[in-house]
Write a structure and sequence with these properties.
mainly alpha; single chain
Length: about 70
């Protein structure tokens, strides 16, 4: 098991991976249509998207948590 202190990083890794796969999949499908080899195109787009999304999530998450805390009541 992974130690609990790594939970925020693991959360960011999983969240950014899932979201970037969905967004890049939709964008790739809309850009080229359902063509032969779309899986390879999507995979390349997803990996480059994830390389940007993961660090972005780690940087933006603390500010987002603070904003949510200000916008909600306990």
């Amino acid at each position: 098991m992974i130690p609990a202190r790594f939970a925020p990083v693991l959360f960011g890794l999983i969240l950014s991976g899932l979201m970037s796969s969905l967004v890049s999949g939709i964008a790739t499908l809309r850009a080229v249509g359902l063509v032969q080899g779309i899986g390879g195109l999507w995979l390349g787009n997803w990996l480059s998207s994830w390389a940007v999304a993961f660090p972005a999530v780690l940087i933006v998450a603390p500010a987002t948590r603070r904003l949510v805390a200000r916008l909600t009541r306990a």
